[in-house]
Design brief:
about 425 residues; about 0% strand; mainly alpha; 20 helices
């Protein structure tokens, strides 16, 4: 009876997501229902209280989003985009791979996919239209780049923080495990899309006048600063031993705050407004990211109370290649349904990774697969904010956009899975 009730609640939760109910409402309600079935309703409230003040997630994620908002307020994000796109202006065939790469790099610096698209889109879309590409190809290039997983290489990203916290792996190992499959899968998707797009008819239009004003180098070079600080301060990279309290490297929140201080020092105009933007970004992160993590934790706590978490761990960790396929399939499917990559990825990490800490390579592989699958799933979801934004900016329907990106993302994920399977963990 308990198993049947648990499965029914999960199916109802999926149905609610299909009907486009708020992800947080569905996760919390399902978690509470599961806990009630297990006769442990208070565990969900305890988990809510615990997670809403968890500094290990709040610090990195909120500070990273605050930094992104300061970059937007100062124009540093668009200056970086102009710098990165400059080499493509006279080489038409380079626009699609370069546009995707610029979106990807921007999403590494700015962990919000919609914010990344807002920085890249106003420059990339007119540039592609002027080169003769259709609006749907321009939109697909924008959404593939800005939602293709670049944020998974930012140590302040919610998915990566969840992998790091729940596996207890050092952040640099989590990044190392993520890099090869993500880079390979993204590159494969971009190549397939570019080959298809170049076979489509084009019609040149008037050139854009966007780039007549001079590039501000002091702005263009600042966005990657916190990530560079984190990598420079990794133990064994440039410094064999780091003094206390940085033995494990520079904390993400420290790097983001230091980066913000540098931006404020370089661009001193309207400092008060820029500081306000930092805290607005932190608030945005709590409302749109931390809230999903909190409610995902409540759902997993309810699932654990029913005993389903142990069964899930058994499925994905003891069946070899089939388990790895399952580790990507379910988060990816939920990403498509909900329009969120964070919810499915974080929920998976919290449910599965703590019990696999003794087998760290396997835990990191499964966490990476779930995060990449959820990210790709969100990128082909008709309700994802970044998809809706990219379609609206380019003047195309969301469904026409999804029809262009879904096949190449599926191809890319097959490459991701093959790379992880080849590691043999």
């Amino acid at each position: 009876m308990l198993l049947a009730a648990t499965l029914l609640i999960i199916l109802l939760a999926v149905y609610a997501l299909v009907r486009e109910l708020d992800v947080r409402l569905v996760l919390f309600a399902a978690g509470l229902a599961l806990a009630l079935v297990a006769a442990q309703p208070l565990v969900v409230f305890d988990e809510f209280l615990k997670e809403m003040g968890n500094g290990k997630t709040i610090g990195p994620i909120c500070s990273a989003m605050g930094y992104a908002w300061v970059l937007r307020a100062t124009g540093c994000d668009q200056a970086m985009v102009r710098l990165l796109l400059a080499p493509t202006r006279r080489i038409r065939w380079l626009l699609i791979p370069a546009g995707c790469a610029v979106g990807f790099i921007t999403n590494v610096a700015i962990t919000s996919q919609t914010a990344s698209a807002a920085a890249v889109g106003p420059i990339l879309v007119p540039l592609m239209l002027a080169a003769g590409y259709s609006p749907v190809i321009a939109a697909a290039t924008l959404v593939l780049g800005c939602s293709g997983g670049g944020s998974l290489l930012n140590p302040g990203d919610a998915d990566l923080v969840a992998i790091h916290e729940n596996s207890q792996a050092p952040m640099h190992l989590a990044l190392q495990s993520m890099f090869a499959p993500l880079a390979s899968g993204f590159a494969a998707a971009v190549v397939v899309f570019a080959l298809w797009a170049h076979r489509q008819p084009t019609a040149a239009t008037a050139a854009t006048s966007d780039e007549r004003k001079p590039l501000e180098w002091s702005k263009a070079l600042l966005p990657p600063l916190p990530i560079l600080l984190i990598f420079v301060m990794l133990p064994g990279v440039f410094f064999p031993v780091l003094p206390p309290p940085f033995e494990q490297g520079l904390p993400v929140s420290h790097a983001m705050i230091l980066g913000t201080m540098v931006v404020l020092a370089v661009h001193r105009r309207d400092v008060s407004q820029q500081v306000k933007s930092f805290f607005e970004g932190m608030g945005y992160a709590y409302m749109n990211v931390i809230s999903i993590i909190v409610t995902s934790s409540c759902f997993i706590r309810g699932l654990t109370a029913t005993g389903m978490t142990e069964k899930l761990v058994h499925v994905v960790s003891s069946t070899g290649a089939l388990g790895k396929v399952a580790a990507g399939f379910f988060p990816g499917l939920l990403g498509v349904i909900s329009g969120s990559g964070i919810g499915p990825s974080v929920a998976f990490a919290k449910a599965v990774l703590p019990s696999l800490r003794e087998n760290l390579p396997l835990a990191l592989d499964l966490g990476s697969l779930a995060a990449i699958a959820a990210s790709f799933g969100r990128t082909m979801s008709p309700v994802a904010a970044v998809v809706v934004f990219s379609a609206t900016l380019s003047g195309v329907s969301t469904w026409s956009l999804i029809r262009r990106v879904a096949p190449v993302l599926v191809t890319g994920y097959v490459v991701v899975l093959l790379v992880v399977l080849a590691r043999g963990n």
